[in-house]
Design a protein that fits this description.
6-stranded mixed sheet, Rossmann fold, alpha/beta, 12 helices
Length: 310
């Protein structure tokens, strides 16, 4: 998915929010904003939004010296999700369709996206979680369930801290011993890392790996060769969140994306209105042999501003 001009205000808002959280000096804030505005004139809009966002966030971390400006927010939403989890997990278990209920809960958790809404409140997250099982769902849920039952190598791509706690309920519905959970390689916005996966309790139910990248999505050209190998060998990839949809929807893979539609641009690409809770299936589901490789698996793009060649 190429970046639209409509994405630019959101990218700049994300960056300025990181500046506020990471910089402690107003003069530094002004300097960084000026560099940010200058850099925005050279962004390569042929790349997906997570590539541009990741590059901007990396430069801001370097300038401000703050490696994880969202650390406190991530911890706060992890604690909230863990508090809410027991009765929600029990409700999923009592449901007539536990798999479908677990999918609904996991997608409801996708509201905890501080890149899309930096001012998200705990009350909003509580409300989304409490109404998760009654939330309408669009997309091929039955096909996802069939694919999960028959898959031998499932790669589950997590999205955000807090949200990852609700993912655990869905991961527990998948065949035990067949699931690898992937998180980001480094902190970026409020995306989940290994620390968040351990807090969520995923280490006890699945193998946890990171993708070697600090982009708020899964940009394969920026991921580690080891992660790309796992992606290529998976016979089912379940990808959470808009960032993963934006960066992976054109990949030739056995891919399902689970996310809440948060902006008009993504609504156009997925065919569902803003606010929808979506199970999206890749049209090109087959690819060469399961042991094949992903193009550019060994290439690493530097975490700098993505610009067009002069």
């Amino acid at each position: 998915m190429k970046t639209s001009l409509d994405c630019l205000p959101c990218l700049l808002r994300q960056a300025t929010e990181a500046i506020r959280l990471g910089a402690k000096d107003e003069k530094v804030d002004v300097m960084v904003v000026r560099e940010l505005l200058l850099a925005s004139t050279t962004l390569d809009f042929d790349q997906p939004p997570p590539s541009l966002s990741g590059a901007l966030q990396a430069q801001l971390r370097e300038i401000t010296g703050c490696a994880d400006p969202y650390r406190e927010a991530k911890q706060r939403f992890n604690r909230l999700a863990l508090e809410l989890l027991p009765p929600l997990a029990a409700a999923v278990a009592r449901s007539e369709d536990p798999f479908g209920a677990a999918v609904r809960l996991a997608i409801a958790g996708n509201i905890i996206d501080l890149g899309a809404k930096s001012g998200l409140t705990e009350a909003e997250a509580r409300s989304a979680a409490s109404g998760a099982l009654a939330q309408p769902l669009v997309g091929p849920l039955a096909a996802l369930h069939r694919a999960a039952r028959h898959a031998h190598r499932i790669l589950y791509l997590c999205d955000n801290a807090g949200e990852i706690v609700f993912d655990r309920v869905l991961i527990e519905q998948l065949p035990r011993g067949r699931v690898t959970v992937a998180v980001r390689g480094q902190a970026v916005i409020n995306d989940a890392t290994r620390d968040d996966a351990l807090v969520a309790g995923l280490g006890g139910i699945a193998e946890v790996v990171d993708n070697g990248s600090a982009m708020p999505g899964t940009v394969l050209a920026d991921c580690s060769p080891e992660f790309c190998r796992r992606f290529a060998e998976a016979d089912l990839v379940i990808a959470k969140g808009q960032g993963n949809f934006e960066s992976l929807h054109a990949e030739r893979a056995p891919l399902f994306c689970l996310f809440r539609v948060k902006c008009p641009t993504v609504a156009v690409h997925c065919g569902h209105p803003v606010g929808s809770h979506v199970v999206w299936r890749a049209l090109r589901e087959t690819r060469p042999s399961a042991g094949g490789t992903v193009d550019n698996a060994g290439l690493r793009r530097p975490h700098r501003l993505a610009i067009k060649d002069a």
